[in-house]
Amino acid sequence: MKRARRVKATPKNQEWLLTLLPVFPLVLLVVRLWYASRQDTQTLLLLLQSISPLGLLSVALLTALWVLPALVLGGKVLGTLYWISARRSSWLVRAAERLPGWVVILAVAVGLFSWQLRFLPTLAMLALAAAGLTVRDRFPHREELRIAFCYALPAMAAILSYVALWPAIAAAVAAHDVATALLLTLPPGAAVLLTGPVPEVPARMLTHGIAVAIAVFAPFLVGVVVMRAPILPLTALQVSENGSPRVLVGYLVASDDQMFTVLGRDGGVSFVENGTLQSRVLCPDPGAVPRTSVNLHGWYVEQNVASWLAPTRPVQPVDPRCQGRSVKDPGAAPG
């Protein structure tokens, strides 16, 4: 069977699929606001009135930066692997064939800058597997190319990865961080196993089963990330009520010349008059607190290349007002 026969004609009258592209992010954004309002309709209307749509769309865009490379590389590897193993066409094979080479390269570049350090070995594994399978498919009679891209290159990349990542691997093992240790050690060695055919009988179940699982769980994973993404600045307001100070920690919804509108972390809305405000401080995002101390020469495993290379502010102690405690001299407090 020739390569041209693998890609069937594009089905007609499927323009309605294009309407789903903006629908899914919009649904996620509305659900995010519904979750932040604790299912209260009036609070939801207040958030819709005050929040900028551009800020909400930026959350979906940042999420897509690390989801799209996984979908592109996963589809390319699984579709090509099934074709090499079974020599039969399917929807997965046709999807992989419709992915141009420049799209795959662009997905690798985007993943390189947007994925965290602990996921970069997985990115390298998928990229090497896609390159090896493509060479095996397009140049079946070039033995030297197959040896170079399917065996030598993944083996050399695995050796270099283990040498470069060994300090982080040792730190993860010492910290009993099993997930990070597995993410840093398994993918480099598994790259060699993904560049060759698998037995024809389990090929369809293996490749299509993984593809269906990715298609089913990817929207849920994106939804979880969007649900936890901040949509408003987290602020601590110290107010004076009847001569006694009180700290209100929440998300700033709106402010004018009369009062501040704050959405508490419990979903309640508070209106603070400007005359009672003593101080105001911007608090760090709770989701930005690292969960592990494993790092590679100062590059923590939960950081991506962009955040590691970008200039950062010196780490400062957390303001006590962000922890709900009032201070006597607001001007002298850190933050």
UniProtKB/TrEMBL annotation:
<feature type="transmembrane region" description="Helical">
    <location>
        <begin position="95"/>
        <end position="113"/>
    </location>
</feature>
<feature type="transmembrane region" description="Helical">
    <location>
        <begin position="210"/>
        <end position="231"/>
    </location>
</feature>
<protein>
    <submittedName>
        <fullName>Uncharacterized protein</fullName>
    </submittedName>
</protein>
<keyword id="KW-1133">Transmembrane helix</keyword>
<feature type="transmembrane region" description="Helical">
    <location>
        <begin position="55"/>
        <end position="83"/>
    </location>
</feature>
<feature type="transmembrane region" description="Helical">
    <location>
        <begin position="119"/>
        <end position="135"/>
    </location>
</feature>
<keyword id="KW-0812">Transmembrane</keyword>
<feature type="transmembrane region" description="Helical">
    <location>
        <begin position="16"/>
        <end position="35"/>
    </location>
</feature>
<feature type="region of interest" description="Disordered">
    <location>
        <begin position="316"/>
        <end position="335"/>
    </location>
</feature>
<feature type="transmembrane region" description="Helical">
    <location>
        <begin position="147"/>
        <end position="172"/>
    </location>
</feature>
<feature type="transmembrane region" description="Helical">
    <location>
        <begin position="178"/>
        <end position="198"/>
    </location>
</feature>
<keyword id="KW-0472">Membrane</keyword>
